[in-house]
Structure formats: structure tokens, C-alpha cells
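Action item from last week, closing it out:
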Amino acid sequence: MSPAAPLYLAVGRIGRAHGIRGEVCVDVLTEFPERFAPGSTLYVGPERGTTPSPVVVESARPFRDRLLVHLDAAADRDAAQALTGLYLFIPASEAHPLEADSFYAYQLVGLEVVTDAGQPVGRVAHVMETGSADVLEVHGSRGTTLIPMIGDVVAEIDLSAGRITITPLPGLLDEG
């Protein structure tokens, strides 16, 4: 069974400090980069465990494959370094509606994974965002199995039944 919907959804992960004025490098975890517009309120905190604190985006600009973001909570480099490794969140209530056949990662965690032949594989423990195709980390009797979320493999996602049906590629479920 899937865990309860979270109160906050991660939209970025803070990397290292950049420069001396309090900017941080942010790995963007959302398909809606407008979340980082100046004046936007985000919430900063660890991935789990505590309620994140509000921060205001003062500026954001592209930098390589990331964003350089200046938050009101980081007046200088030392304050920016203290944010390293934390996440930026939005309230889940502000999430954009998704298109049909699209899912938030939290909705998949806990779902049972079975093959199209009915063979149980395990339960989704984590969804890894790799840049090209997300990967399901599934824990089951054979240990941990990594399943790419591509059309050739994922046959069906049925949230109401709590199940993901896959058509395994040759070698995907081989014991090794």
C-alpha cells in the first residue's frame, strides 16, 4: 500500500555554495522551473523528518545543467554552505495537475510489482530520477531489483489496485 500523500514535494536539491554573495547551485527536480522565479516562496529542509522552513527566492539563473539560486536565508557564502544537501519544497497542495498516465514518485512507493505472467517481484522502495528514464528500486525475495520505467518494461500502473505490472526484458530478473 502507498504511503500517505506528503505535505511537501521536492522541487530542488541544494548543492554547493557559489561565490561569496550567498548563491547556491540547485539540481532542479521539477518539470516546472518557474517555481524558482524571484519572489517565489519555497520551503527548505532535509529530505525527511522535519517540517521545512519558508524561504523566498531572490534570484535564479541558469548555470550549466542547474540553477544558481539566491535565497533570502543565505546572505553570504557561509549561510549558503549551511544549506548544502538540503531540499527545496513546495506545499503538495500547490502541485500542478499531471497529465494522464503521469505520476508523482511518492504515488509509486509501496506499490506491488508483478510480471505480466503474475510472478511477484517485490514492492517499490524508491524512485530514482536519472535524467533519461526514472528507475524503480524494488525490494523483494530476490533482493533489490532496478526496473527502468520505459514503455517496453512497464505495462501498467494501477494506483487503485496498488500494483505495477511489468514485462521484464531478458536478464532483468535473472538471479546473479
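Closing note: Residues 8-94 form a domain with the Elongation Factor Tu (Ef-tu); domain 3 fold (CATH 2.40.30.60).
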